[in-house]
Structure prediction request, 306 residues.
Amino acid sequence: MSTSTHEAPVSLYDEPGPRARRAIRLWSVVAVVVVALVIVLAGLQFGSHGQLDADRWTPFLSAGIWQYLLIGLWGTIQAAALVAVLGGAFGLVLALGRLSRNPVIHGVSTAYIEIARTIPVLLLIYLMLFGLPQLGLNFPLLWKLVIPLTIANAAAFAEIIRAGILGLPAGQSEAALSLGLSRGQTMRLVVLPQALRFVTPSLVTQLVSLVKDTSLGYIVAFTELLYRGQVLAAYNHFLIPTFIVVTLIYLVFNGALSTLASRLRRRPGKRSLAEPTSGAAPIVGVPVTDGPTRSARSRSARNAKE
Prediction:
């Protein structure tokens, strides 16, 4: 009787080899040098025009200005959270629809994803702002931003989730089906939990892009960070310092999300399919064996006799 061996855990992110690591280090150094050079040149240019004078930065020591900007950041977080929840749920439905064996569901889901990925978000926002009100559909400012972003990001979430599902070994579904689970139960109880876990870093990265897209809220006059920055710059007439501060807030917030995504990619247990693991979690329907398999023990015994 043959025994099954463990499958290594799936990962969508294979560890780079020595050549790839050298290339990553090289281009990282080049990128840091280029960014540092741009910052220095920009600082010299700003300084030559008096934009770095102390009197232009003193107002930003006031707690009132920071409170004003942080209210805008809270608006950004609210919009991003709504889009993440709605877009994630809709994206899950689209991913399952694109994997469906029903040709109608598959065709509709595929068509939506391909069309939504090609339409600019700005065009959808203008449609919400100028087109729908003429048809009698006038949404609150928040939803004039959330709905277009949800339409666009749902397609991106769908492709990420679909990639995670397709990246799982076929043995996961086959083992669950052999135990008597239906295809729906297999997808819900076995496939989706693992797929979502493996694509979590990509979902967080998409969230970073989503937070940046919320800056389009200034078009509909929604109270988000960039809109507050524009209003503040018009009030204090310190355009460059105001937008530098707003940029730094975006850098800190999105940098924290990017760091989270990087840590999730490097977390223990995210290995490639080709990498063997001795402490791998058992797969549904696959018997667990301690030590070498029976065939391996038989070969060892024959070698010992010889």
Observations:
- The two ends are 24 Å apart (CA to CA).
